Sequence to fold (266 residues):
Amino acid sequence: MLQPLFIKATSLSDAWFQTLYRCVEQGRSFAIDRGSFEGQKRLEFDYITIHITHPATIPLLPKVNPLLGFPDPVDEHYLDDYLPYLMTGEEKEGESYTYGQRICKCDLAYLPDEFKRLTNILVQEKEIWADRNILIKEGGRYFVNQMELMIWTYKNKGHRNNQMILQVGQPSDMVLLDPPCLRHIDTRIQDGKLHFFPYFRSWDLFGGFPANLAAIEMMKQYCAAQIGVENGEIIASSKGLHIYDYVFEIAEAIRGRSMDEFREMS
Fold:
């Protein structure tokens, strides 16, 4: 039987420490049949939801006790390089996708050249198609910036709608050897605050979790400021949040146990 888990945390750092401790205690051990790190073992939750009530609390990245002799899971300068990966359409040679390319420069290959032909098939207001921050045209191709469209919609059409979901996943991902882990970031404005609801199909708890959530939080802060509302909470979920075997010892040390104690309880 599946064992869904819920964690409520105050900050991003609190969420990481709580989730790491629980993964060591309750994660299921198995070997990876296919995908990243094929053949290695990991501990993984069946399904987890993490509610972070104050994600803007500084520091955004967790800090490990220096007396343990381990580096922090994410270098404090990493976000400077990672944020464009999430908030722009920048794509480097050899990359099949980036989160930013999927969110902020999503290819609209089907879009016809003459906007008049869109009248009967588009639900969104025609005025957005003249906004080049939203509809990008390059070399005869069209791209949509979902983040800017979400901001425009909340600013101009009101806060109460359930359509503004930033979508990363697409059906063609099934043919990729390494499809995107982040599938979408759902959004809602409630009580005058912008809240984000990211979902990951698979998620590296030790390094990916803190880096991803810190960048998503910074993105949320930007969007809230552009819309003119307060910054809100994060409720993240995944059916594949895990730690790999090469960080078991580090996770145990952070938790305050030795590997011998871990083996005795396993």
